[in-house]
Structure prediction request, 343 residues.
Amino acid sequence: MKERKRGFAENFRRARQGENNLQNGAKKRMFAGMAGVFFFFLCLIFPLGPQFVFSAARREGACAACAACAACAVVPPPQSAFGGTGEEVLLSRFTTRFDGSNAPRSHNIRLAGKLIDGCRLAAGEEFSFNRRVGKRTAARGFKDAAVIFEGEFTTGTGGGVCQVSTTLYNAALLAGMRIGEVHPHSLQVGYVPPSLDAMVSAASDLRFFNPSRAPAVIRMHADGNSITAEIYGRATGYEYRTESAVLRVLPPPPAEEVEGEEDCVLRRGKNGLKSESYLVRYRRGRRVGSVRLRRDTYAWVREKLQKKREECPLLPQEESGGESGRGAAGEKGNSCGKVVQND
Prediction:
């Protein structure tokens, strides 16, 4: 009898153990399923796309030959700029050209670009050109060069810096940065299309901020006759392009003429413009939308000519001491009708 009870107890214990094993297996399968669902949604929020795979391969040296490959749109930034993470890609690059023979202006462009180079923007951080570059003064190394002041070309300290801000402005647009402040020149400039320039001064700034949840880095470098701005950050899957359109040409009035020692052109005339610009967004090569950036008016420049002053010959004087050739007040006249006092 005792043995029968012991057998029943053993069978009951084994049945309970089997039931527990089944329950534990079900729990493990349920946990694995929940983990898979969680990982799926995590991948949707933080995609591990081709950029991550490409960066990892580059860190391991598997894609060393791709550095100059035209098929790879990813250009790795210097590791020192990002602390060696290697996940940032080239978002945009924009270049403008200048006259390298104009030494003072070229110096100002290179100096301003050097002050910006290496600037790091955290997620959501704002960039200010005036705050980063600082005041353009002789004490800080800037030289006198051509500037636009009240619709006229004149000389001022820091001339040429606006080309640096314009180059950076276009790179920021192409990188998907959000523009906070930008101003057009009063006159059209020649190094970018209309409505894509960015004038800076003591009272006017260029500001934009990084909308990504990852940091971005600005690189700027100048060679003999060009300056380039590059922005690195995390890829968004979108590409950006800019478009410019001239709405109306504003011709100047007839040339102004002044007298001088010789015939020459003191100021070249230039048409004014009404223009606007657009930012176009693409995804996988397809245009998905556009937005108008701004609409501007650039003033015309009236041509100024100098004409040689004509000499006014005097009438030959009378040999006699009579009153002929004298006016009522004892003055002599000439063929130009001007009056010369006879003392």
Q: What stands out?
A: The chain has three domains: 1-38, 47-76, 77-306. Residues 47-76 form one domain. The chain has five helices and 17 strands. The two ends are 163 Å apart (CA to CA).
